[in-house]
Design a protein that fits this description.
Shape: globular
Helix content: 40-55%
Radius of gyration: 21 Å
Bound molecules: (2S)-2-hydroxybutanedioic acid
Distance between the termini: 51 Å
Structural class: alpha/beta
Strand content: 5-15%
CATH class of the largest domain: Alpha Beta
Largest sheet: 7 strands, mixed
Length: 394
C-alpha cells in the first residue's frame, strides 16, 4: 500500500523555515514564517501565559477528558473576545480546535456536510494553506480579486466585481484583519459593503481571524467580524490564539458558528461536537485552558492586553522605520504602503527572481511571493533590508 504514495508538494512557508536554518551566515534575517519575534529574535512565552501555567500546575488535579467542545470557559471567553455583544451569544455555537488551522478544517467539514456543492471563495492571494486544504478535501474553490500587485493595496472594485458571481449557498472566506499574505486590508465601510453583497447573494461568510490585536488593537481588529456578525443571518468564524497569546505549539483555536435563530443553535453545536469526535475526538486542552484562565481573570487579562499592545506598537514602529528608510534610499514614495499595511505581514511586490537575489546576496529570507514578516526585523536590521530592497527591486 505505502508504495502507492507519491511525494506531496512541500509547503512553501515551512520549506523556507528549513532553508533558513541551513544557511550558515551569521547575519541572515528570517522574515518567513508568521511567528512573532522580539528585538533579540526570541519568541517569548507571554507573562500572563507563564502566570496561568503556574496557577494551573497548582490547581489542576485531573487530566481526564473534557467535553467534545472543549473547556466552556475558553469557548465563552473567545465568543466575547471576538464577537463582544455584536450578536446574541445564544445564536453562537463554539468548539475548541487544534489551532486556527484546525478551526478552518472543521469549518470546511461543516460546509461539506451542510452543502457539499458549495464553492468556497478565497482572496487572490490568500494564505496558501486555505487553498491546499480545500483541494485536499476535494471542495470547490474559486478566488476573488483582492490585491493590486503594482500599488500593493486592495483593489476593491475588482473584488466586488468578482464576488458578484457568488451563488446562493456559497461561502466567502474573508480575513477578519491583518490580511495574510499581503498586509493590505479593507476599511470597515468596505467590509460593510461586502457583507451587504453576501447577504444579497444568500451566501455565507467564513471569517479567518488569526491576528487579532496585531493590527490596530484588540477591538479595532475584531470590528469587521462584529460588523459582519451583526449584519448576516449565519456566519462561521475560525479564530486562532497562536499569535496573540504566543502559544503556537499548543495548538489553540476556536470555531464559532452563528445560526440565524437561537433554536437552531443546539443542532449546530451538536454538529460541531460530532465533527470534533470524527476527526480527533476531544480537542487539545492545555492552551485553551490557559486562554480561558487569562480571559476570565481581570489581572491576567490586563497584563496580557498590555503585553500584546507592546508587541503591536513594536511592529508598527518597525513598519514606519522601514517605510522611512525606503523613502530615503529610493528617493520615492513607492514603498509607503508598508506603513499603511497592518499585521505581521507585508507583500512588497518584488518578483520571485528579486526575492531570490535578496536571499542569495543579503541572507534575507522572505516568502517567494515577496511576503515579509515584519516581526522578524529589529531597528538594526531594518536599514540592511531597506538597502537590499532598494538595490535589488528595480
Ligand atoms: C504563516 O502564514 O506563516 C503562519 O500562519 C504559519 C503557518 O502555519 O503557515
Amino acid at each position: 500500500m505505502l508504495s502507492n504514495l507519491t511525494p506531496q508538494p512541500a509547503d512553501k512557508i515551512l520549506e523556507l523555515m528549513q532553508l533558513y536554518r541551513e544557511d550558515p551566515r551569521d547575519n541572515k534575517i528570517d522574515l518567513g514564517v508568521g511567528v512573532y519575534k522580539d528585538a533579540t529574535g526570541l519568541t517569548p512565552v507571554m507573562r500572563s501565559v507563564k502566570a496561568a501555567e503556574k496557577k494551573l500546575w497548582d490547581i489542576q488535579d485531573s487530566k481526564t477528558y473534557t467535553g467534545l467542545s472543549g473547556d466552556p470557559a475558553f469557548n465563552d471567553g473567545m465568543k466575547e473576545l471576538v464577537l463582544a455583544q455584536s450578536v446574541d451569544h445564544a445564536r453562537v455555537a463554539a468548539v475548541a480546535t487544534p489551532g486556527g488551522t484546525g478551526a478552518l478544517r472543521q469549518a470546511f467539514e461543516l460546509i461539506k456536510l451542510a452543502n457539499p456543492d458549495a464553492t468556497v471563495w478565497t482572496s487572490n492571494p490568500t494564505w496558501p494553506n486555505h487553498v491546499s486544504i480545500l483541494k485536499f478535501m476535494k471542495m470547490n474553490n474559486r478566488s476573488y480579486a483582492y490585491f493590486n500587485e503594482e500599488t500593493c493595496t486592495v483593489e476593491f472594485d475588482a473584488m466586488l466585481a468578482s464576488l458578484d458571481e457568488v451563488a446562493a449557498g456559497d461561502v466567502v472566506l474573508l480575513h477578519g484583519c491583518c490580511h495574510n499574505p499581503t498586509g493590505a486590508n479593507l476599511t470597515l465601510e468596505q467590509y460593510g459593503l461586502v457583507a451587504d453583497l453576501i447577504a444579497k447573494k444568500g451566501a455565507i461568510a467564513l471569517v479567518d481571524i488569526a491576528y487579532q490585536g496585531f493590527g490596530d488593537g484588540l477591538d479595532e481588529d475584531a470590528a469587521a467580524t462584529r460588523l459582519l456578525a451583526s449584519k448576516l443571518p449565519e456566519m462561521l468564524i475560525a479564530s486562532s490564539c497562536s499569535k496573540n497569546f504566543g502559544i503556537y505549539r499548543e495548538r489553540t483555536g476556536c470555531l464559532m458558528a452563528i445560526s440565524e435563530k437561537a433554536e437552531q443553535s443546539a443542532t449546530t453545536q451538536g454538529t460541531l461536537n460530532f465533527l470534533n469526535r470524527q476527526n480527533y475526538s476531544f480537542p487539545p486542552d492545555h492552551g485553551a485552558r490557559l486562554v480561558g484562565m487569562i480571559l476570565n481573570d481581570p489581572e491576567l487579562k490586563a497584563d496580557w492586553m498590555a503585553e500584546l499592545e507592546d508587541v503591536r506598537l513594536g511592529m508598527l514602529a518597525l513598519r514606519t522605520q522601514l517605510a522611512d528608510e525606503l523613502r530615503q534610499k529610493t528617493n520615492s514614495s513607492r514603498f509607503d504602503f508598508i506603513a499603511q499595511h497592518r499585521g505581521m505581514f507585508s507583500r512588497i511586490g518584488a518578483s520571485s527572481e528579486e526575492v531570490l537575489q535578496i536571499r542569495k546576496e543579503y541572507g534575507v529570507y522572505m516568502v517567494g511571493d515577496s511576503r515579509m514578516n515584519i516581526a522578524g526585523l529589529n531597528t538594526q536590521t531594518v536599514p540592511l533590508l531597506a538597502e537590499a530592497v532598494a538595490r535589488v527591486c528595480k
